[in-house]
Design goal:
By secondary structure, the protein is an alpha/beta fold. The protein folds into two domains: about 180 residues, FAD/NAD(P)-binding domain, CATH 3.50.50; about 60 residues, no CATH class. A five-stranded parallel beta sheet has the order 3-2-1-7-10, with helices on one face. It has a three-stranded antiparallel beta sheet with strand order 4-5-6, with no helix packed on it. Strand 8 and strand 9 form a beta hairpin. The longest helix is centred in the C-terminal third of the chain and has 18 residues. The termini are far apart. Flavin-adenine dinucleotide binds next to helix 1, strand 2, strand 4 and helix 3.
């Protein structure tokens, strides 16, 4: 890595956990690539009713699309392609099928439920085989035991629930940031004066915004959410592949 360039993280899997993790690492200043192949399993859901903030539930396809938009808006880049191998090293090398490219990164975060086919080739990773499913053994912060390699969401054996996997994506991104040399305190947006009014510097990762800026952001958010929820989301739930037509 050139010393002036931000560290790169490749997140494998652009579903609930991976997109949430990408939002956090991109906001912390990492060069963030979300490598994704196929769709989030959440697109099979009929109506999502247990995610905080949506009292009458939300269309899960719309929810995933908004997660994608949020990650990109915060600076993450989505790349289409299937990870087929990860070589541990400094940097890590990620082989991509059908993408016509390979990736290198200082950090890798695996969030590729339910594809575990490429994990066995990763030197030193500890896998848990439970019936037909394979999970990655991680510590509380999603660390795999291999420096720089993390896992989040269902593939890290978290409960099969959206809010849990999203929360774990955030938690693992925060461990990765804390383990790195990127200065960080919290990812907070505070009103002007919250820190500086007490004679404190605004801590790294935090932002203080003026009242005008707060109102501008609120207006932008209201407009975007009104557009997003104006009409039915056209896409229908994806059926389980084993269900006959
Ligand atoms: C029918 C159904 C209904 C559900 N309803 C609810 C509900 O009502 N409430 C709730 O809380 N949860 C629900 N869930 C569960 C929820 O969808 C999951 O728990 C959540 O999506 C898991 O998040 P994740 O990021 O771990 O996996 P995913 O969201 O599936 O994301 C994994 C991503 O990785 C990609 N990927 C896989 N392999 C690779 C690879 N090799 N390279 C690159 N990318 C790869 C996948 O294509 C996918 O985009 C439901 C699930 C199903 C199937």
């Amino acid at each position: 890595m050139n010393e002036t360039e931000p560290p790169r993280v490749v997140i494998i899997g652009g579903g609930v956990a991976g997109l949430t993790a990408g939002t956090f690492t991109a906001r912390a200043g990492f060069d963030t690539i979300v490598l994704t192949h196929g769709e989030s399993i959440l697109r099979r859901n009929a109506h999502l009713e247990n995610v905080p903030g949506f009292p009458a539930g939300v269309n899960s396809r719309l929810f995933v699309d908004l997660l994608i938009e949020q990650a990109e808006r915060n600076g993450a880049r989505l790349e289409a392609g299937r990870a087929s191998d990860v070589t541990v090293g400094d940097p890590f090398e990620i082989s991509v099928d059908d993408g016509g490219f390979d990736l290198r990164a200082e950090y890798v975060l695996i969030a590729s439920w339910s594809d575990a086919s490429y994990l066995e080739s990763i030197d030193g990773i500890h896998l848990l085989d439970r019936g037909s499913k394979t999970y990655i053994d991680v510590d509380d912060g999603g660390r795999t035991g291999i420096e720089g390699l993390y896992a989040a969401g269902r593939i890290a054996a978290k409960a099969h629930q959206t809010v849990v996997c999203a929360g774990h994506g955030a938690e693992v991104a925060l461990s990765l940031i804390e383990d790195s040399e990127v200065p960080f305190y919290h990812d907070w947006v505070a009103p002007e004066g919250y820190f500086t009014g007490r004679g404190r510097e605004v801590p790294p990762g935090c932002e203080e915004i003026s009242e005008d800026e707060r109102k501008r952001r609120e207006r932008e958010s209201m407009k975007r959410m009104q557009e997003a929820f104006e009409e039915h989301h056209a896409e229908e739930p994806t059926m389980h592949p084993a269900v006959e037509e």
